[in-house]
Amino acid sequence: KNYLGNDKTWVGNLLIHPNHWPEGGACITAWNGKMHRWIGNHCIFNGSYPVYFQACNISDFKKYSVNMPYAEDNHYYTPKGEYKIGCGKKVSLSLETFQKKYHWELGSTVQKTPANANVVSMAKKILSL
Fold first, then answer.
1. Cα(19)–Cα(98) distance, rounded to whole angstroms?
2. How far apart are alpha carbons 18 and 1 in whole angstroms?
3. Closest residue by Cα to residue 29 from 40, 18, 39
4. What confidence tens digit (pLDDT) does each residue in 20-67 have?
5. Which of 26, 50, 60, 98 could form a disulfide with 45 if both were Cys (CB 3.0 to 4.6 A apart)?
């Protein structure tokens, strides 16, 4: 998979524990490039920071920015039902703050991690099985 470049689109995916690969990872992996889109995905994350950008400026979220992925209608599942976005040096903001203050992740939700049987059902639905 090519992680570099512009215009990457993730739509309608189910990610399960992306933070358990060797280098760690978040639900949105947009290391480089511009004009990325992250829409209608489900991410089961074993931590509190399902969205983390190593190098970002919080002001990029105040306006439309080609440097930050466009995100909406995503569904995050964490052990405590918490969503925090990390930006740069662990700036931590909640999903509600991002939705109200920055108009980012509109329509997105966060819930506690579902039972394994529910995860299997989610996968079957996405795969049309």
1. 22
2. 15
3. 18
4. 766 667 888 666 667 788 899 999 998 877 887 766 777 776 656 677
5. 50
What does residue 71 show for φ and ψ, rounded to 5 degrees?
-135, 135
Sheet holding 37-39, edge to edge: 9-11, 37-39, 70-72
The H or E element spanning position 92 is: strand 91-94
The residues pairing with 61 across neighbouring beta strands, listed in sequence order, are: none
Average pLDDT, the chain: 81
The shares of helix, strand and coil residues in the chain, as percent rounded to the nearest 5, are: 20, 25, 55
Q: How many CB atoms lie within 10 A of CB 45?
A: 25
Q: Cβ distance 51 to 27 under 8 Å?
A: yes
